[in-house]
Backbone:
């Protein structure tokens, strides 16, 4: 994988982790 591809995917991975954490913290 080239660096531009990695930079392109990082925000999506962080967004997925953020959404999962939000779903876990909801009652």
Residues:
């Amino acid at each position: 994988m080239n660096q531009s591809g990695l930079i392109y995917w990082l925000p999506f991975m962080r967004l997925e982790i953020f959404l999962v954490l939000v779903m876990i913290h909801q009652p």
User: Anything to note?
Assistant: The mean pLDDT is 82.
